[in-house]
């Protein structure tokens, strides 16, 4: 792959990461139907940015995978895991940030008896959404671990990036087994920012590829 392709991949990762950061900064804290209706526009905009980030990230991760292709199994496994995670988070964003507000909008001013049924449906939607969040978190951690192993194997990127990725995986794993929940807005935000740090460092490593890189 020519150096300009790696640079394009790095830029794509940076764009995708920045969109993720903006999403979490704008991300509203929903609750009751009334609260969701008050923040409907902000919810749709912030989650639309999350969805928009996925093709940029996928393109960037393909460049990263190509750079590490000599470690074919781990590099491709990482890409497939990340692709699965990005699809999951895209579904979660669409359900929680677009479908849910539009659904709640239909019941503005509805009688309490109707709203009680709606709340049960929305509660199921929240659990459904959390399932995709877990898929995204698990897939992202696994992808970073596999890319880190590929970096150690190929030495195609700085070794410290691999060690940082392994530490990231171990910290997330320990936190999970200690019962830490990543699904609250603040904890999920921390997780996203932690992921973005590794992604940005990988992006800048790709941007440094010289014209004779293969």
Describe the structure.
The chain is an all-alpha fold and 214 residues long. It has one domain. It is built from seven helices and no strands. The protein starts with a helix and ends in a 7-residue tail after the last helix.
Quick summary:
This protein is mostly helical and 214 residues long. Helices cover 83% and strands 0% of the residues.
Number of helices, counting only DSSP H or I runs of 4 residues or more: 7
Beta strand count: 0
> Main beta sheet: strand number and arrangement?
none
Overall structural class, as computed from helix and strand content, comes to: mainly alpha
- How many domains? The number is 1
Rounded to the nearest angstrom, the radius of gyration is 19 Å
Could you spell the SSE succession in H and E letters?
HHHHHHH
The low-confidence runs, each spanning 5 or more residues with pLDDT under 50, are: none
* Shape type: elongated
What descriptive keywords fit this protein?
214 residues; mainly alpha; elongated
Furnish the topology, listing elements before pairings.
Layout: H1 3-26, H2 33-38, H3 40-67, H4 72-105, H5 112-154, H6 159-177, H7 185-207
Helix pairs in contact: 1-3, 1-7, 3-4, 4-5, 5-6, 6-7
